[in-house]
């Protein structure tokens, strides 16, 4: 399971409502995920959507996904619909991460990732082995692999289809 | 190395000898409690799916969602839940409909679903509340669908932090003040971890206080909160339990990533907000600010002891003419008890508006007569301070305990209950 793309770096405490502002709660509550995606990181980095290319990666600092869980799905689905391949970080709110994995969307803590990539570097990482290459600097590093159980859910596309396959 | 309460519950639920932090496990759940707005119903109907065990799903009518811009509205969602339950074979008594209703993580405690030593799942954000009963209580949020197909849930075994309690709260201080203390002190340390309580101070905490403390998990940043099983819990839960249960206790040498101690007698009333819950301050810092609205209710503070705290302040006094005070009991059981004990009488005599049980004014999408308009300030016992949460984006929410809210409703400004003038002579 390989994730490969340009990495955009953000700091610590990037909360769900930093990813999509609570001002757009109505879009989230109406499940308008394309609508949410149009406001991605609007208050954090107003230029973000202009530089984003589908397949890009967000690298956050510590405590990614803080804040009230009511806003998690909007943030996760906005990232997914905007074409961001994955969110990596130093540490993540477990409930935010769980909500993402259930949607088949990789949000995973890779402690040390902040030192390994600079803003705009091209990153390639194999989630199964934890092997990562910074294609811009030429450096390699091995991170903690993502457990098989979680990779199974990502591979199934989402946790519901994974669960249905288990009872089939 | 010994095991935490969390590791013991997850080992038991996943059929493992023991588990360690970082392990990926599949944990069997004991039941699922749902609020009254559920997207999984559409998915199950569209795809013709069946829940793993209909007897283990309950629905609690609590939010009463109103606006027409939301996917779920009480007027359509409640009938949908009733018919879905019928289709799936979910027993009628598992629907906590009007008359038996209440908040979806309070009902399972009152009705003996959330039992010590088990994994309890709630669809609502604040489901950690049930951790007061020595269970691992986790919010499934929008991830309910896969869990109720298989009856188990994937988990990465979390790290735990230990908090040892001594002493007892002074009068006028309750679980909510302690949650604010923990938000201010722990934030980053608690992130994604389970808080396990122990120590002699636990015995001094009523069930209401434990539930209020466990309720604050998400705001503290923790994954959930677990209390040990002691005589206070067992006396409460034994007559209510729906089946046999086996509590867990942490081993003396259990591994924790951090350990803190709190003397509960040192906790003082605190306020949080506006806008950010992390903005926790002593009551003195906001003293004198005018208030237009006051709210006692929500899953953090709509319990009998909160209502009693407000009633003690309001007895013989009147709510200030420019303040709307709304009180929402957390559940039908609490509502009945407040009626039986005269608490409701004290509240309405003072000019409070008491609503049907549930989540109430905490979120502007709920059915409640309390909505904030431009330029208003509300002092509230509820769970969130986010701008716009209770109505206008041009209004402000400050959170405090029920005594502070009631006293401020009388004074028309934020006040320390201890400094409220005595009730008028004529009324004594």
Description:
The complex is a heterodimer of chains A (168) and B (428). Chain A is an alpha/beta fold. Chain A has a single domain, classed as Aconitase, domain 4 (Alpha-Beta Barrel). Chain A has helices spanning 16-19, 25-29, 33-37, 48-51, 72-82, 94-102, 113-116, 148-156, 159-167, and strands spanning 2-9, 57-59, 86-89, 107-109, 122-126, 131-134, 140-142. A seven-stranded mixed sheet of chain A has the order 4-3-2-1-5-6-7. In chain A, helix 8 (148-156) packs across helix 9. The longest helix of chain A is centred in the middle third of the chain and has 11 residues, at 72-82. Chain B is of the alpha/beta class and 428 residues long. Chain B has two domains: 5-264, Aconitase, domain 3, CATH 3.30.499; 273-427, Aconitase, domain 3, CATH 3.30.499. Chain B is 27% helix and 17% strand. In chain B, strands 4-3-2-5-6 form a five-stranded parallel sheet. A five-stranded parallel sheet of chain B has the order 16-15-14-17-18. In chain B, helix 10 (304-314) packs across helix 12 (343-349).
Question: What are the main properties of this structure?
Answer:
heterodimer, A: alpha/beta, Aconitase, domain 4, 7-stranded mixed β-sheet, 9 helices, 7 strands, 36% helix, 18% strand, B: 428 residues, alpha/beta, Aconitase, domain 3, 2 domains, 5-stranded parallel β-sheet, 27% helix
Summarize the structure.
Chain A is an alpha/beta fold and 168 residues long. Chain A contains nine helices and seven strands. Chain A has a single domain (2-167), classed as Alpha-Beta Barrel (Aconitase, domain 4).
């Amino acid at each position: 399971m390989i994730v490969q793309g340009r990495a955009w770096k953000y700091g610590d405490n990037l909360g769900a409502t930093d990813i999509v502002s609570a001002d757009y709660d109505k879009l989230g509550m109406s499940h308008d995920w394309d609508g949410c995606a149009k406001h991605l990181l609007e208050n954090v980095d107003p230029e973000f959507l202009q530089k984003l290319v589908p397949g890009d990666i967000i690298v956050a600092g510590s405590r990614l996904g803080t804040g009230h869980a009511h806003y998690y799905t909007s943030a996760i689905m906005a990232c997914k619909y905007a074409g961001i391949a994955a969110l990596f970080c130093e540490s993540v709110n477990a409930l935010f991460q769980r909500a993402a994995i259930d949607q088949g969307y990789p949000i995973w803590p890779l402690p040390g990732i902040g030192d390994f990539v600079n803003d705009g570097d091209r990153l390639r990482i194999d989630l199964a082995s934890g092997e990562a290459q910074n294609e811009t600097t030429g450096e390699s590093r091995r991170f903690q692999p993502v457990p098989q159980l979680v990779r199974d859910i990502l591979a199934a596309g989402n946790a519901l289809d994974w669960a249905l396959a288990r009872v089939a | 190395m010994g095991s935490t309460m969390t590791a013991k519950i997850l080992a038991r639920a996943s059929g493992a000898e023991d588990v360690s932090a970082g392990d990926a496990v599949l944990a069997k759940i004991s039941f699922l409690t749902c609020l009254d707005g559920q997207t999984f119903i559409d998915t199950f109907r569209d795809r013709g799916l069946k829940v793993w065990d209909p007897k283990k799903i309950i629905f609690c009518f609590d939010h009463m969602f109103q606006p027409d811009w939301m996917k779920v509205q009480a007027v359509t969602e409640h009938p949908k839940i009733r018919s879905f339950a019928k289709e799936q074979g979910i027993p009628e008594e598992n629907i906590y409909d009007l008359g038996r209703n209440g908040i979806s993580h309070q009902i399972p405690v009152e009705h003996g679903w959330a039992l010590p030593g088990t994994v309890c799942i709630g669809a609502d954000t604040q489901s950690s509340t049930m951790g007061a009963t020595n269970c691992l209580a986790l919010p499934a949020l929008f991830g309910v669908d896969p869990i109720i197909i298989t009856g188990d849930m994937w988990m990465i075994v979390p790290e735990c932090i230990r908090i040892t309690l001594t002493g007892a709260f002074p009068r006028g201080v309750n679980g909510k003040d302690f949650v604010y203390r923990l938000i201010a002190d722990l934030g980053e340390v608690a992130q994604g971890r389970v808080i396990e309580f122990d120590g002699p101070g636990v015995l001094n905490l009523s069930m209401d206080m434990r539930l209020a403390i466990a309720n604050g998990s998400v705001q503290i940043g923790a994954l959930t909160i677990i209390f040990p099983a002691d005589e206070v819990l067992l006396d409460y839960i034994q007559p209510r339990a729906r089946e046999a249960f086996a509590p867990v206790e942490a081993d003396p040498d259990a591994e924790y990533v951090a350990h803190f101690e709190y003397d509960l007698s040192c906790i003082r009333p605190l306020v949080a907000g506006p806008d950010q819950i992390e903005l926790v301050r002593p009551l003195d810092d906001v003293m004198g600010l005018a208030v237009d609205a006051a709210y006692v209710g929500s899953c953090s503070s709509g319990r009998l002891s909160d209502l009693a705290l407000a009633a003690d302040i309001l007895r013989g006094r009147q709510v200030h003419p420019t303040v709307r005070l709304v009180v929402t009991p957390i559940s039908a059981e609490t509502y009945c008890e407040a009626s039986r004990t005269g608490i409701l009488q004290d509240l309405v005599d003072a000019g409070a508006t008491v609503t049907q049980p549930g989540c109430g004014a905490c979120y502007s999408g709920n059915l409640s007569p309390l909505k904030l308009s431009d330029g208003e300030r509300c002092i509230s016992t509820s769970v969130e301070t986010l701008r716009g949460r209770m109505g206008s984006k041009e209004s402000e929410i400050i959170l405090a305990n029920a005594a502070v809210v009631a006293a401020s409703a009388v004074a028309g400004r934020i006040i320390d209950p201890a400094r409220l003038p005595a009730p008028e002579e004529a009324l004594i």
